[in-house]
Amino acid sequence: MESQQLGRTPYFYGPEGALVQVDFALEAVNRGSTTVGIRTNEHAILASYLKPTRPLLDPAEKIYQIDQHLGATGAGYIGDVMKLIQELRVNSQKHRLTFDSPIDVKTASEDLSAYLHQYTIYAVRPLGASVIITGKDPTGVQMYQIDPSGTYFRGSGFSIGAGSDRSIEIIQNGYRPNLSLEETVKLAKEAIKSATKDDNQVELGVVSNSSSRFEKINQVQVPSSAQ
Fold first, then answer.
1. pLDDT digits (tens, 9 = 90+) for 96-118
2. What predicted TM-score, i.e. pTM, was given to this entire model?
3. Which of 24, 164, 167, 176 registers the highest number of CB atoms within 10 A of its CB?
């Protein structure tokens, strides 16, 4: 009874100091599609498993271009993921109009972090979605993960969604900072397959130091053995 009452009160802390509604939001993320991000010295890959849908329905898009140099993916409730993608796109365009330059990856992550944090302060439902952002800015290729609480992390390997513990272990074991694009794609698919038993229904996106443009994987040159 106590846990149910706490769950209906978003701004209450649990007995151990945790924000109860944020914990519930993280559980929603853990039920989402297996999604990974891998960053090397020269490029970054986003990959997400396309869950099977009902007959005659096309699978939902999972990899999104935010700006020419910036891409994102997410796991959790699809409506919440799309809300965060739209927020990223709006903030990116506002930055271009205000400063006449593309937004850097850290600023995009900080803006989304602040947006999510508002949902932990006021009596509203925290968004049940985590997002991985990657892009090329003056500091090079960067990657961040932002959780429902507004906490964000910068790193070279992330996994969210169902089976994320298994997939991040695969990434950690196979990661090297000098991986080729082909090897990075292969590692991302292996990580997803470890959780889903399927690496055929995977959507991917890439950004690199050489092109400075985020693109879906089927729009760029990738060696055939990585397909």
1. 999 999 999 999 999 999 999 99
2. 0.89
3. 167
133: three-class secondary structure by DSSP:
strand
* CA dist., res. 69 & res. 142, Å (int): 11
Q: With b meaning 16 or more CB within 10 Å and e meaning fewer, what string describes 35-59? A: bbbbbbebbbbbbbbbbeeeeeeee
Q: Which residues contact 11 (CB under 8 A, 6 or more apart)?
A: 120, 121, 122, 123
Could you tell me the maximum CA-CA distance found in the chain, to the nearest angstrom? 57
> What are the tokens at 104?
């850097």
- H or E element, residue 129: strand 129-137
Q: What is the pLDDT of residue 11?
A: 52
- Tens of pLDDT along 18-76? 778 888 899 999 999 999 999 999 999 999 999 877 788 887 889 999 999 999 999 99
Whole-number Å distance between alpha carbons of 37 and 192: 11
Distance of CA 112 to the CA centre of its chain: 12
Q: Between β-strands 35-39 and 202-208, what pairing exists: parallel, antiparallel or unpaired?
A: unpaired
Classify the C-alpha dihedral 184-186-192-194 as positive or negative: negative
Domains parsed from the chain with CATH numbers: 2-50+57-226 (3.60.20.10)
Q: Order of strands, edge to edge, in the sheet holding 202-208? A: 157-160, 35-39, 43-49, 202-208, 215-216
CB of 150 closer than 8 Å to CB of 33: no
